[in-house]
């Protein structure tokens, strides 16, 4: 008789691999099913990690060409795209190899192939070649993530018309790049190729970029990116793309509300209009696992589906499609299966966009607080008044903290700055403990640091900052 596992995880992305490792730490016998040659899912292989490698490298290239002279460093940078892409690939290899090491360290059994659920307590693994294997398991975790959304009538060939995957692997810098979608993925990857020499135009169906972000922060971010050479065409949709004989592409643009069409010529098009849950081939209908109206797996507050012993987390369930959200859910679901009582506080999950400057936010935006009728006060401090930012030539942006008028409890925050993604976490921790703006304003911050702007913004919620 085959061994029975305590937990079988389908998918080894951030949510899946964290759940597997945590379950193994808690003494469970764990199996992971992965159809890709390497572990780590979209994030490590074709998402978060490789994109950040290119974002960092392209930002250094931009700084070398434009800012170094102000620091007294005279150089003329030359782009070696082949080496930049090799750095990206090396970064991916190091990270996915790390997951493989952790699986071995924690004695996690791996199965290569596509996982499906033929019945409760069983996972069928179908490899690319060879006979399928059936795993007997007490619990099943669906952690299959998401895939890019395509547009009707527009074929993604990952050559001239690409998803985020293809945009990470251009072998030469496109002279003209058309980005469909003004969300995080489109703006990050658009900024990479813009720094390396592409003329980037962003087409967004809505009348603003970055829906969900505080509207003031979104406007400031658009201004920053416009100064960097990025063009924006809002309230516009792309209805067709034609490949031209000279290797270029021609996109048909129409006003979102209807009207006369115009055309845009480009050398490549990035389709970045969002992602959707990936449930294809899982056999969920046969297993009786319920989906919601958007194709996401329905779960309760303990990540349980309607079928006993089957759980789901990450991009395949409701909520923000963020790797760290999936990781927290993976950590929690393993502890729940082990009989513990963890929780995930969705009100304090931060978001970060890794453009230059970075944009980070957590909690409620001003738009959300106004819509909910919550009385709040806003403390805002610009980096033009921060000594470290001046020394680094990094004065773009600000910190804005939103606090409840009656209790002073911090309800949300936005940071636009170099290293904003690192600075947001002190506000996350404060909010996790229901802290006030006064608590933050009275906390000592090292001088000189960019993080002093967080303290000053908190003071702005009271009697006022010191340095403005």
CATH top level assignment of the largest domain: Alpha Beta
Question: What is the CA-based Rg, rounded?
Answer: 24 Å
What characterizes the major β-sheet? 7 strands, mixed
Low-confidence stretches: none
Please identify which CATH superfamily of the largest domain we are dealing with: FAD/NAD(P)-binding domain
Our estimate of the beta-strand percent is: 15-25%
Number of domains: 3
Total number of β-strand segments? 22
Helix proportion: 25-40%
Q: In one word, what is the shape?
A: globular
List the helices and strands and how they pair.
Layout: E1 4-10, H1 14-25, E2 30-34, H2 41-46, H3 48-66, H4 81-105, E3 109-112, E4 114-119, E5 122-126, E6 133-142, E7 146-148, E8 161-162, H5 164-167, E9 176-180, H6 184-195, E10 199-203, H7 215-227, E11 231-233, E12 236-243, E13 249-255, E14 262-266, E15 268-271, E16 275-277, H8 284-287, E17 310-312, H9 323-337, E18 351-353, E19 358-363, H10 366-372, E20 376-382, H11 387-391, E21 398-404, E22 410-417, H12 420-432, H13 437-441, H14 452-460
Parallel strand pairs: 1-2, 1-6, 2-3, 6-17, 8-15, 9-10, 9-15, 10-11
Antiparallel strand pairs: 4-5, 5-6, 7-16, 12-13, 13-14, 18-19, 19-22, 20-21, 21-22
Helix pairs in contact: 1-9, 3-4, 3-6
Spell out the key features of this protein.
468 residues, alpha/beta, FAD/NAD(P)-binding domain, Enolase-like, domain 1, 3 domains, seven-stranded mixed sheet
